[in-house]
Write a structure and sequence with these properties.
The structure holds two protein chains of two kinds. Chain A is mainly α. Chain A contains eight helices and no strands. Chain B is built from three helices and no strands. Classes of the chains: A mainly alpha, B mainly alpha.
């Protein structure tokens, strides 16, 4: 059920399996979309249709719906890259040979959340200038005597907690799912080793539970890629329209 | 597997929240490459296809609308031409009718004049012939009457001027009698 190379967050040195998978995901995504987009037929073939549907999901379902306006297209490359990068790297955890969601190692999640953090603050500053920090932390329509409480909360929630939750949400769900499947696997192995036939038989129950958890985990892998990208779009939209919030 | 769990337990001091720098670098580089490909190739290519498709559909609609407009313009023109032709035909028919009536009137007038002329000529001829007949009759009647009277009386009145006067007087009386009877 498991490749031996998986040492949890080990491999402090050298080129680990996690790194290999990350680079492979870039190859998979790039090859698939470039092949799908290359022909550019008005009436798409199967591959082109699949590519357009996947691309259109991020373009229309996330970028256009959340950011909207005329220039949402500027942010499509970022959202597109984020969604499919995270999706493929998560799905690794559900594929038998790979069996490692790469974001169960926290480094990658920090990097992506950090990039998004820098991006939306830069967008907010570019759009509104330094006034952006006031717009983002001082909500309009709040009585002055509540402001001393509200402003610190806004600062903490927007500029401190936000990138942390953004990265840890992805990392924690992936790690937890990975652990559950791994523990179920070792549990089954342990039970099957038992001399007692009845005890041996209970491994079937664990197997059923493991399969259910595997399905749930596969769902969460897709969902987390969507959630991460959706939140990115919401942060960018908030930075673009800070004055109307 | 036991060994794995043991080894994991042995590494219990490794905090999962502390990232591995090399992994972060790999993710950063990998994502940067993917982002570059998305900006440079994937998004422009898909957007180009979408734009072309939208243009093809909108172009088709525009073309159909243009054809529709042309067709209705042509129909309008034909209707206009048809109306013009009808008006023209009516006008020509009216003209022809008027002209025909004019011609007919002219001919009638001409015929009437001609018939009047012929009638007048005939009257004149008849009158002159009657005049001639009257003249010849008068001389003949005179001669016949004198001859007859001579025979009855037994004496010749031929060379007698008196006889000629008697005849003339008689005829004049006769004419005046006739004229009185006619009245």
């Amino acid at each position: 059920m498991h490749l031996p190379a998986i040492l949890p967050w080990g491999a402090a040195e050298g080129f680990s399996k996690q790194m290999l998978l990350v680079l492979l995901s870039v190859v998979f995504i790039a090859v698939f979309f470039v092949l799908a987009a290359r022909k550019q037929q008005l009436v798409p073939g199967k591959l082109q249709f699949a590519g357009e549907a996947a691309y259109g999901f991020v373009r229309n379902g996330i970028a256009k719906d959340i950011i909207g306006g005329r220039d949402f297209i500027k942010y499509v490359p970022l959202l597109f890259s984020l969604f499919f990068f995270i999706l493929v790297n998560n799905i690794y955890g559900a594929i038998p040979v790979f069996q490692l969601p790469t974001f169960s190692h926290v480094g990658g999640a920090y990097v992506l959340a950090g990039l998004v953090y820098v991006t939306w603050i830069a967008i907010g500053l570019k759009k509104n200038g330094l006034r952006y920090f006031k717009l983002a932390t001082v909500p309009s329509g709040v009585p002055w005597y509540i402001l001393p409480i509200v402003i610190p909360i806004e600062i903490i929630s927007n500029f401190v907690v936000r990138p942390v939750t953004h990265s840890l949400r992805l990392f924690a769900t992936m790690l937890a799912g990975h652990l559950i499947v791994m523990i179920a696997g070792s549990g089954i192995e342990y039970l099957i080793m038992q001399e007692n036939v009845l005890l041996k038989g209970t491994s079937v129950l664990v197997l059923a539970g493991a399969i259910a958890m595997y399905m749930l985990e596969a769902l969460i892998m897709v969902l987390q890629a969507y959630v991460f990208t959706l939140l990115t779009a919401i942060y960018i939209e908030g930075a673009l329209h800070a004055d109307s919030h | 597997m036991h060994q794995l769990i043991i080894s994991a337990a042995a590494e219990g001091d490794v905090n999962p929240l502390v990232p591995n720098g090399w992994e972060m670098l790999v993710v950063f580089v990998g994502f940067a490459i993917l982002f570059f490909i998305a900006v440079k190739y994937v998004v422009p290519m898909f957007e180009k296809t979408f734009a072309e498709r939208a243009e093809a559909i909108e172009g088709g609609i525009a073309k159909a609308e243009k054809a529709q407009a042309e067709a209705s313009a042509a129909l309008e023109e034909y209707k206009q031409q048809l109306t013009d032709a009808r008006t023209e035909a009516n006008r020509i028919r009216e003209e022809a009718r008027a002209e025909g009536a004019q011609i007919l009137a002219d001919l009638k007038e001409k015929a009437a004049a001609e018939s009047a002329r012929i009638t007048a000529q005939a009257h004149a001829q008849i009158e002159s012939e009657r005049q001639a007949a009257v003249v010849s009759l008068r001389s003949e009647v005179g001669t016949l009457a004198t001859t007859l009277a001579g025979r009855i009386v037994g004496e010749s009145l031929d060379d007698d001027a008196r006889a000629a006067r008697v005849v003339d007087r008689f005829l004049a009386d006769l004419e005046s009698q006739n004229a009185g009877a006619a009245k």
